[in-house]
Amino acid sequence: MQRRFISIWFCNLATDWMVRRNPALKDIPFVLVAPDHGKMKVTVANLQAQRDGIYKGMALADARTINHTLHYFNDEPGREIKLLTALAKWFIRFTPSIAVDNNDGLLLDVTGCAHLWGGENSYLTDMHNRLQNFGYNHRLAMADTIGAAWAVARFGKGNCIIENGQHAAALLPLPAAALRIETVITERLQKLGLVQIKSFIQMPRTALRRRFGKELLQRLDQAMGTEEETIQSIIPSELFFERLPCMDPIATRKGIEIALERLLDALCNRFVQEEKGMRNAQLKCYRVDGKIETIAIGTNHPSCNSKHLYRLFEDKIATIEPALGIELFVLEAPVVEDLSAVQEKLFAGNAELNDIGLAELLDRIGGKIGVQNIHRYVPDGHYWPERSFKKATDMNEKITTEWKLDRPRPLQLLKHPAAIEVTAPVPDYPPMNFRYKGKLHSIAKADGPERIEQEWWLQDGQHRDYYCVEDEEGHRYWLFRLGHYDVAKSYGWFLHGFFA
Asked: How far apart are CA 309 and CA 327, in angstroms?
């Protein structure tokens, strides 16, 4: 496919932006100024000020002598770069590959994009109309090379499209400065009467290199297309993403749902072919007014199930405000992991964390209540119940210590054991009943004791004798006596957990 590029030159970017913020400045001469060696000097002058003879680098005092009613504002360092960066992000609706060009332009790689607008004429016209409506004075040019597009945008006549293979002819009548070379080289060429590109393009390359250096030849080759040149997009291009431009703005939930389904189907098909799965994804909705609505999801395991991923997005679609309409949908998957096909079991056994159904259930629960509210606990290398487990760093953390399954443990362990009143017959016998939160529980079955000693290397204290008990209603509890049984009853009884 033939590469195609667009260069956009903003003739008065900073002053046009000031007028956008304050329309009253539209027909008033004004400048932006900044301190320079103790003097305030003009950094940018609008068209009205330029017509009065005010130019960049002039002292503010001299400018105000020329025009006593001249308005001036403090310039902000790096303002143009910030404006161009914001414009580049807005231009993603036309192409995903955009770069900032110095302080006054943008470069777009539009290869394979124009057909979505019905052709290059409609494509360029749409860009021009939108920028014009924003109030930016600009020039656009499309060509096979970056150098040709840049040259025609700044030194050609109006907005134009250089047809495939015609960029060399378009460059010949342009001045040498159109090759993006340094001013010193341009002045040297002019002194020798080599004003236009056609006046020196046929000269021997050795002579050009000797007189003007390698830069002239490199820029000439780039403009002519004999040396490849690419742009470094300011918007990081995700390895896995899909775009869906809309011919008419979408303003309904149903339209958003259809767009999301198409994007997920396309992206998941790629995942299946490459044995990949996404861990998180973002849906970016570019509105007509320039604002971007974003919703995001995450998964516990890599997934390429488009239906499951759609359900995760579904609950968040209501937060999207389409306003006047959405003209571009972009689905990005910044975190992708390998996903091998898992053989299905004929006879399903116990579900584990790598079970797809369980992982998808956790994803849906996390989407509703927040992933931060779902916790996984893994065993820790301690005997004392409160220290026998710890919170996992993530759902996929590998267990390094096995759970102790030789004795029963409650499903719910209280953070702090609750003191209870117990009636027990003789030492080491299970209690007959206990009172917890004002309610008396008669014990029908009991098992124990299980003695758990303090971990003396961590803290001092008494041992615990644990009992698993079941009351008359069938509820099971984990009780313990702290310390040895004695006549003075210096020990205490506590409830520490609940069984299912």
From this structure: 23
In a domain, 297, yes or no: yes
Q: Are residue 313 and residue 422 in the same domain, yes or no?
A: no
Query: The domain spanning residue 246 has which CATH number?
Result: 3.30.1490.100
Those residues whose C-beta lies under 8 Å from the C-beta of residue 305, and which sit 6 or more positions away, are: 268, 356, 360
- Please tell me the predicted confidence (pLDDT) of residue 345: 47
Cross-strand bridge partners of residue 105:
9, 101
CATH number of domain containing 15: 3.40.1170.60
Extended strands (E) in 304-340: 326-338
Tell which residue, 181, 180, 175, has the closest CA to residue 193. 175
Model's pTM, two decimal places? 0.65
* 369 phi and psi angles, rounded to 5 deg: -110, -5
Domain end, chosen from 142, 175, 204, is at 142
What pLDDT digit, counting tens, does each position of 159-202 carry? 899 999 999 999 999 999 999 999 999 999 999 999 999 999 99
Establish if 247 belongs to a structural domain: yes
Question: How high is the pLDDT of residue 22?
Answer: 92
CA dihedral of residues 459, 465, 468, 469 (deg, nearest 10): -120
- Whether residue 239 contacts residue 278, with contact meaning beta carbons closer than 8 Å, is answered with no
- The Cα 290–Cα 288 span in angstroms is 5
- Which residue range is the domain that position 290 belongs to? 241-338
Kindly report the number of other CB atoms within 10 A of residue 39's CB atom.
Answer: 12
Q: Are residue 435 and residue 323 in the same domain, yes or no? A: no
Is there a single domain that holds both residue 328 and residue 438? no
| Boundary-marking domain end, from 82, 115, 142 | 142
Kindly indicate the confidence band of residue 341, based on its pLDDT and cuts at 50, 70 and 90: low
- Is residue 385 included in any domain, yes or no? no
Residues 428 and 312 in one domain: no
The per-residue pLDDT for range 45-100, each reduced to its tens digit, is: 999 999 999 999 999 999 999 999 999 999 998 899 999 999 998 898 898 899 99
**252 touches 285 (CB < 8 A):** no
Q: How many domains is the chain partitioned into structurally?
A: 3
Say what the pLDDT of residue 344 is: 44
Q: How far apart are CA 211 and CA 216, in angstroms?
A: 10
Instruction: Spell out where 119-161 has E strands.
Output: 138-143, 160-161
Q: Average of pLDDT values for 22-39? A: 92
Structure tokens at 249: 């703005």
Cα–Cα distance for residue pair 285/359, rounded to 1 Å: 28
Give per-residue pLDDT as tens, 114-127: 988 889 999 999 99
Secondary structure (3-state) at 68? coil
Lookup: tokens for 71: 């308005």
Q: How would you classify the pairing of strands 138-143 and 5-10? A: antiparallel
Whether residue 223 lies inside any domain: the answer is no
